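Postdoc handover notes: sequence design on the structure in folder B. Input tokens:
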């Protein structure tokens, strides 16, 4: 599986729940809560979207 660039996703949707199509980059819906984002995606006809929470801020971890 290839890496996905979600940098634009972060810029536009930081702190929100996002429903993605199976390509893992196309945004179907976004909302403040998981339930709201899922409801929006379902209303648009997507029964099983990929759900992810976009972080509110990015933190660098070095280990």
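Designed sequence:
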């Amino acid at each position: 599986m290839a890496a996905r660039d979600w940098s634009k996703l972060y810029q536009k949707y930081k702190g929100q729940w996002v429903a993605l199509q199976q390509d893992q980059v196309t945004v179907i819906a976004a909302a403040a809560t998981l339930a709201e984002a899922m409801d929006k995606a379902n209303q648009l006809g997507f029964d099983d979207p990929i759900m992810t929470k976009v972080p509110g801020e990015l933190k660098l971890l070095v280990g």
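Context for whoever picks this up: The chain is about 25% helix and 20% strand. Don't rerun without checking with the PI first.
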